């Protein structure tokens, strides 16, 4: 028996890497004498940081030419974000962040049997997340040995046999198959087929933790849960509203698009509690002049410092203002569009009339003047595009906010013509494709029928499975007995990390398919397997030596091929589709599924995927042929053509009540009134040196943080109001809300940052122990990790 819990479960959840510090490193040529990074976002600093990343991994510069291939025809899809490629662009169409992801993946370092022979899991669990992953690539199958407390190598056939044996002993409905959004379409298709043919529909995915509310909101209103615009729309929009998103760090290629838009005179507006540097000062690494001068450009005309969770109020205020103007004779709405394409107008207007300006101002944290200015800016635009990311989805009222946003676009006919649209900017490079491949806990019957028709003899479970929160809860209460994962870091990426990790350790079986070790892997179940796979940059060869190609779908529904280029570090690293197929063959070989033929030739698998997509997602006809086209092909989005696949065939204007941060009220209800003013809403955000739970370094240069991640940001005014000062150490008390549990992070350092009142920010994943498992977006169950009620206590 392995110890189910590292640390006794207590209210004192402290980040395991607590207190360790790195020296500042990388990308900070522009530090002033006061240690302030005052260069623009992007620019020379970005180029330097990218090269540093390769150097730190010990990757020779000649390999760096490889990134010239990222996001190019015949190359690999960048393993970073899901922002689309610039077709026909010259030079590397990858960014600092993409290059960090590539360098991190192409590293020659190995977390092999020799590495694991040196370190027990008990020891490794004390390492920081960064150091665990920095050990290098997994190169051989490993099994946990509880007696030695180590991962030890075993041959592939044994690993597969063991997995099959364990799974046969378990009740399928108690087994979960998690997928992170990096898997290719082919691997994702096989993953969901494996799970459902085995009898489990428990297919949680990283989307559950990410853009689930966007999909839910869009599907209900416009009939499709995906964004409606393409990259070309950004070239003709005259207004781009970016909400709850930090593209300079998380989608730098989008920054280039915004930069170009603002240079040609389009208005870029950012709605964000944090004045992110990219919006106010950004130099495009592709602009020779800006690189020579290292001078940036103000990309956003305005950063509107909305209160955390106050976006819906701000959007309602805009529409209320529009309505008042309409009633006074200024035409703002697109009446023809509303008549022809939508329903629900009257109810929406009735709600708008009822909202009180004072309530909207208070909830949005914005003055009437700021709200009116925003309303005017949007009312004057001819073509408005709206994009958003986690600042909208990680809230209890995320779905309501996004639906309010869709209402706003519908009122002015801003969906389905050039330069307009609603665009949830996805996170992982293939998170959208994984969903298209049915890798989720609930799918249309047609999808299942098609698979059974394509594969005679096959029977798939028809159940609706558990989502990510459901699986985490199941691991805590013991009803979920096994966790299998295709990438990701389930125990750390979800809520309540320390408790969920303990739940994973207490399970019967864990199997992780991964490129690098991470904290979740260090919590094996009674039987624990860790299986190495190839990454995007690696050459994936079929048994006959041919190079295999996989496919991915970006955030704007372009499907294209990805072909690795680096010789794998070890022959024991398998392509993800081949690995999942081998697992399928070991577990289910009744002949209905030609697992091994597919493993040997992904093109044959794509022919079946094409068949299965009939009547599910349009655009997969001649899949293999279209994949060979440069740049791939677009999956048509009916809403982009003003076809609404809703039950009535019309786009839905849905009335929205004003939603305030209920979580703050619930936390305050347990405190004396005198304490209410001390309650802040903490958002967990990404630094510039990480990809989700993969932490590349300890710097966040745009926010002037070097050598640490254990910081809490507050506005200078809030610091003063609370009698605190920058540099001071505090304990963060995550206030009990629904489960009565207090959560703590100890010894974080206060930092001042230009941001809205009433909120604080700390980094994900360090702050994940503060996220209560039950605190989720209504209707989508995404952890509400951007509004955690906290109090700060100075450390003596
Ligand atoms: N380099 C790099 N690229 C990435 C990732 C990465 O970690 N590193 N992660 C990928 C993934 S999976 C995703 S989902 C995306 C994430 O991309 P983002 O959503 O940009 O990432 P976050 O850091 O979570 O940033 C959230 C932003 O929302 C703002 N915000 C927080 N609360 C609110 C609010 O209530 N209202 C508004 N209007 N804004 C708010 C924060 O100030 C911050 O600017 O990036 C993807 N790309
Ligand atoms: N508090 C808080 N929590 C959050 C968020 C937040 O903003 N705040 N953001 C949420 C969001 S938006 C997301 S998307 C999730 C992310 O959640 P996950 O997707 O579960 O986490 P990642 O950190 O992206 O996973 C990294 C691991 O994936 C593995 N990996 C990397 N590349 C590959 C590959 O090509 N193949 C395979 N098989 N494995 C690979 C490596 O082992 C690496 O350690 O986290 C969520 N959690
Ligand atoms: Mo994400």
TrEMBL record:
Origin superkingdom: Bacteria
Claim: Iron-sulfur is one of the keywords in the record: yes
Pfam families to which the protein is assigned, alphabetical: Molybdopterin
Biased composition (Basic and acidic residues): 1-10
Keyword ATP-binding: no
Domain Molybdopterin oxidoreductase, residue spans: 137-274
Stretches for region Disordered: 1-27
GO cellular component terms, A-Z: membrane
Gene Ontology molecular function: 4 iron, 4 sulfur cluster binding; formate dehydrogenase (NAD+) activity; molybdenum ion binding
Record's keyword terms, sorted: Iron, Iron-sulfur, Metal-binding
PANTHER family for the chain: PROTEIN YDEP, RESPIRATORY NITRATE REDUCTASE
Protein name: FdhF/YdeP family oxidoreductase
Species the sequence originates in: Inhella gelatinilytica
């Amino acid at each position: 028996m392995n110890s189910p819990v590292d640390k006794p479960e207590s209210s004192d959840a402290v980040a395991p890497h607590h207190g360790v510090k790195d020296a500042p490193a990388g990308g900070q040529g522009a530090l002033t004498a006061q240690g302030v990074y005052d260069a623009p976002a992007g620019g020379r600093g970005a180029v330097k940081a990218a090269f540093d990343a390769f150097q730190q991994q010990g990757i020779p510069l000649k390999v760096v030419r490889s990134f010239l291939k990222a996001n190019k025809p015949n190359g690999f899809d960048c393993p970073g974000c899901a922002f689309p490629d610039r077709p026909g662009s010259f030079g590397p169409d990858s960014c600092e962040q993409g290059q960090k992801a590539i360098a991190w993946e192409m590293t020659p370092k190995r977390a092999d049997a020799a590495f694991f022979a040196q370190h027990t899991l008990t020891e490794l669990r004390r390492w920081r997340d960064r150091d665990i992953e920095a050990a290098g690539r997994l190169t051989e199958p490993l099994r946990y040995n509880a007696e030695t407390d180590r991962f030890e190598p075993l041959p592939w056939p044994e690993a597969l046999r063991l997995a099959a044996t364990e799974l046969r002993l378990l009740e399928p409905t108690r087994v979960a198959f998690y997928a992170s959004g990096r898997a290719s379409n082919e691997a994702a298709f096989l993953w969901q087929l494996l799970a459902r043919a085995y009898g489990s529909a428990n297919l949680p995915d990283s989307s559950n933790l990410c853009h689930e509310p966007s999909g839910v909101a869009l599907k209900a209103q416009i009939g499709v849960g995906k964004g409606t615009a393409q990259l070309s729309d950004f070239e003709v929009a005259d207004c781009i509203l970016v909400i709850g998103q930090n593209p300079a760090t998380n989608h730098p290629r989008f920054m280039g698009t915004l930069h170009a838009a603002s240079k040609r005179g389009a208005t870029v507006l950012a709605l964000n509690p944090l004045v992110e540097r990219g919006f106010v000062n950004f130099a495009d690494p592709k602009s020779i002049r800006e690189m020579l001068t290292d001078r940036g450009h103000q990309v956003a005309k305005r950063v509107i410092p909305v209160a955390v969770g106050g976006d819906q109020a701000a959007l309602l205020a805009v529409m209320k203002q529009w309505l008042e103007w309409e009633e006074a004779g200024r035409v703002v709405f697109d009446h023809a569009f509303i008549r022809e394409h939508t329903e629900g107008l009257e109810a929406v207007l009735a709600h708008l009339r009822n909202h009180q300006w004072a309530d909207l101002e208070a909830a949005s944290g914005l003055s009437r003047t700021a709200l009116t200015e925003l309303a005017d800016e949007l009312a004057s635009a001819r073509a408005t595009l709206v994009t958003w990311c986690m600042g909208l989805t990680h809230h209890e009222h995320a779905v309501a906010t996004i639906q309010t946003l869709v209402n706003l676009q519908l009122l002015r006919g801003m969906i389905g013509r050039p330069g307009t649209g609603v665009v949830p900017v996805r996170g992982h490079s293939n998170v959208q494709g994984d969903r298209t491949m049915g890798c989720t806990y609930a799918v249309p019957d047609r999808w299942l029928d098609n698979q059974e028709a394509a594969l005679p003899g096959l029977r798939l479970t028809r159940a609706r499975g558990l989502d990510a929160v459901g699986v985490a809860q199941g691991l805590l209460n013991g009803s979920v007995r096994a966790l299998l994962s295709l990438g990701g870091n389930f125990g750390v990426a979800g809520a309540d990390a320390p408790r969920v990790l303990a739940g994973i350790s207490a399970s019967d079986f864990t199997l992780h398919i991964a490129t690098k070790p991470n904290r979740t892997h260090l919590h094996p179940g009674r039987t624990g397997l860790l299986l190495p796979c190839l990454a995007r940059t690696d050459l994936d060869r079929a048994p006959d030596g041919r190079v295999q190609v996989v496919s991915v779908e970006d955030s704007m529904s372009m499907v294209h091929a990805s072909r690795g280029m680096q010789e794998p570090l070890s022959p024991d690293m398998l392509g993800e589709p081949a690995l999942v197929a081998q697992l399928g063959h070991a577990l289910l070989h009744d002949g209905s599924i030609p697992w091994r033929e597919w493993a040997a030739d992904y093109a044959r698998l794509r022919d079946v995927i094409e068949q299965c997509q009939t009547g599910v997602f349009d655009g997969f006809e001649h899949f293999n042929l279209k994949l060979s086209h440069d740049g791939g092909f677009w999956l048509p989005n009916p809403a982009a053509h003003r076809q609404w696949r809703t039950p009535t065939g019309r786009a839905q204007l849905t009335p929205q009540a004003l939603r305030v941060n209920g979580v703050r009220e619930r936390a305050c209800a347990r405190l004396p009134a005198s304490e209410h003013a001390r309650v802040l809403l903490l958002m967990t955000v990404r630094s510039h040196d990480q990809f989700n739970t993969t932490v590349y370094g300890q710097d966040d240069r745009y926010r002037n943080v070097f050598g640490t991640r254990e910081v809490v940001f507050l506005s200078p005014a809030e610091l003063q109001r609370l009698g605190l000062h920058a540099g001071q150490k505090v304990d963060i008390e995550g206030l009990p809300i629904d489960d009565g549990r207090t959560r703590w992070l100890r010894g974080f350092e206060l930092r001042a940052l230009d941001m809205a009142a009433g909120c604080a920010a700390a980094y994900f994943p360090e702050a994940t122990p503060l996220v209560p498992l039950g605190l989720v977006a209504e209707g989508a169950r995404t952890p509400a990790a951007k509004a955690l009620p906290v109090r700060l206590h100075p450390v003596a």
